[in-house]
Amino acid sequence: MYIGVKEIKITDTVSILLLPLIYALVLGLILYLAKPITFIGRKQSKAAEGVMVILIGVLISKLAISSGQSISSIFQVGPALILQQIGNLGTLIALPVALFLGFRREVIGMASSICREPNLGIIIDKYGFKSPETRGVLSVFVIGSILGTAFISFLSSISASVIPMHPYAYAMASGVGSASMNAAALAPLMHMFPSMATKLEAFAGCSNLLSFCFGIYMCIFVSLPLAEWMYKRLAPRFGNGEKTTIDDEYAIEGVKDDEYASKDELSAGKLLRWTVLLVLFSVMVAVGNYIGYNSSLIDSFIGMIIISIVTIAGMSLERLIPRNIQSIIYISLIGIIIAIPGMPTADFVSHYVSQIDLATICTGFLAYVGIAIGNDWEEFKKIGWKGIIITLIVISGTYLCSAAVAHFTLIATGAV
């Protein structure tokens, strides 16, 4: 937060914003990879993976509370929020490009979704772990984990300054189904349109919640069958190209069971570890908020404690209620409800949580991300430049197509 926001002017109207969250991610990765540094290694990287699971809840909680504050505006633009989910099919733009570059059935896994954890599960379940489709989805998953957050932040700032679509549309497009990408895409918009900050947070948070809830069904019933259909028709045209496959030997493991995030039964020890972690993170965010935005240190800390309580409540409910419902759903619902105008908690919650800039939370979170992705660095190097190109097209396709659908729906319904 001390370095602050740096703006790189490309032309008079086009610029790229370098935000503290990007510095934090890069510095975290450097700390892991730098050989002279010995106090951050594989053990610390695995611990950071567990911490990330908790801090994703913090990001979701902050966005959910903003959604509750702006619930009337959300209902007003409701059709745009729902229809922009169709823009997630923009990932399919990458399929013919991947075929042209020499990939074969890997393209079905690569281009049928943005390739986050739920999509990994769908592809592995349908095609098997050793299948080319799974190698494809794993490649985009790895590259997206390492480059996706930084790339979508740059994409957001450039798009908002070049393509004349409403900021609300870009905020909705930020809800790609990844908490870290959601926040990274939103941060430049809030800097560029500070007067709209709360509503931008609200639309981004609701859009991401919809992606979490319905994105898996969009993949199963729409985008995956479309990817199969496109492959059958387009692959013969590229049949003479060199067949490229992704290294069979690598596999990306999910977050290991660990003392912070494992989904075993709730216990007093687990609650204590969550509490200690989130209190320490709250102190870090409050200090960063004070340095970066001159906000009240005490008010920021109180706001973070509220967010932390919502996070712990949501993660506890996931373990207490015998249903296969992710904690992010509980966290989102609790955050929205306690901030809805008219609720007894609304004024108190909104006052303190609004003191916290989302970018401050993202900066702390992405420092852990940078350390954690160090473990995947060797796998990332195996994939090569072709996989990087496809991943960036996948992210760009879903982001820009979602923004376009949201923008034209906002105009058609008279919401803007």
Please describe the biggest sheet, giving its number of strands, its sense, and whether it closes into a barrel: 2 strands, antiparallel
> How much helix is in the residues?
55-70%
In DSSP terms, counting alpha (H) and pi (I) runs of 4 or more, how many helices? 18
Order of helices and strands: EEHHHHHHHHHHHHHHHHHH
Question: Roughly what fraction of the amino acids lie in strands?
Answer: under 5%
Shape: globular
Query: Count of DSSP E strands?
Result: 2
Given the helix and strand composition, which structural class is it?
Answer: mainly alpha
Low-confidence segments, given as residue ranges, are 246-259
Q: Mean of the pLDDT scores?
A: 81
What is the total domain count? 1
Give the gist of this structure.
The chain is an all-alpha fold and 416 residues long. Helix content is 69%, strand content 2%. The model is unreliable at 246-259 (pLDDT under 50).
Write structural notes for this entry.
Residues 246-259 have low confidence and may be disordered. It is built from 18 helices and two strands. It has a two-stranded antiparallel ribbon. The protein has helices at 20-33, 42-69, 71-76, 78-83, 94-100, 106-111, 117-127, 132-162, 167-173, 179-192, 197-234, 268-293, 297-320, 327-339, 346-353, 358-372, 377-383, 385-412, and strands at 6-9, 15-18. Helix 1 (20-33) packs parallel to helix 16 and helix 8 packs across helix 18 (385-412). It has 416 residues and is an all-alpha fold. Strand 1 and strand 2 form a beta hairpin. The protein has one domain (38-243, 265-412).
